[in-house]
Amino acid sequence: MSALAYVRPEGVDEAVALVSGDPGAAFLAGGTTQLDLLLKDQVIDTTTLVDIGRLPLTGTTVLDGDILRVGALTTMADLAEDAVVTERLPFVREALLAGASIQLRNMATIGGNLLQRTRCRYFRDRTVPSCNKRSPGTGCAAITGPARMHAVLGAGQHCIALHASDLCVPLVALDAVVRIQGPDGRRTVPLTEFYVLPGERPDIENVLGHGEMITHVDVPLPPRGTRSRYLKVRDRASYEFALASAAAALVIEDGTVTRARLALGGVATVPWRAHDAEDMLRDVPATTEMFQAAARAALRDPYTVPGTAFKVELAQRTLVSVLEDLAGLAGVTAAAS
After folding, report:
1. What residue spans of the chain are helical by DSSP H?
2. pTM over 0.90
3. Least crowded by CB within 10 Å, which of 38, 44, 197, 243?
4. What distance, in Å, lies between the first and last C-alpha atoms of the chain?
């Protein structure tokens, strides 16, 4: 095992200075994914861990009555029990409780959840030589190997690694904004623009520069009367990552969809905002036929390999099921099939 330094700063400015001034340094908070990669899988080459776990970045605040500001070090468990989340953001709470185990949710932070690394088996296995995300230019072993837990949207010949977060799916649907502090000051980035599609550089996963840290996440609260739900399909009921998931927030008035916010998880290289599906549901009757058309639009032009082709239909069915549930049509598709 290589030598590893550990420091615990007193404030955000000090933490940013410590990491930005050392190319081998990295932030450490909840620690679950990062320590796995560093100590067990030996995938990353961090030489100094800057522990930010005690910085004052916890808790939530409602701003101007319509934005929930979440501290980056708030745990998943605490956010799931937040009164505003329970009342106004039920699908965010469902996503939090569907992610990880109870023990992990008590440790894992919101910022860490947004930055968790892919569970792609080829990325995490250093004996696999072909991984463009770990070693750019070496190829992608997942394309020709077993790939049941990989992406069909935002994927391509260079990488099909999946983004694993449940929480990010409803946050993307809500147009959440990430607040960042770094050596050049503070900035904000919409979550829909925070993640980077793999393209020819799968090793670049988001817009953070070295030394920049997430301090807060601003979550717009949907209009009252909005119905929302998060549904996760997985191989087992206990701790498991999604084969497909869908987050939806609808406003339905007199049987017509007047507002729709949709996103998919478990099928894409980034949390996937389903803009095409939202366009299909603008001012249309809330019917199963319209929901099926929207689901087909959401999965348009997938990139599949033999192990992932099943995910296209699975994701469509998952999205339709969520929409039917919100419209009070639950069971219609199942009864008709």
Report:
1. 12-20, 32-35, 76-80, 83-88, 90-98, 102-107, 110-114, 121-124, 168-173, 191-194, 275-280, 288-298, 310-326, 332-336
2. yes
3. 44
4. 56
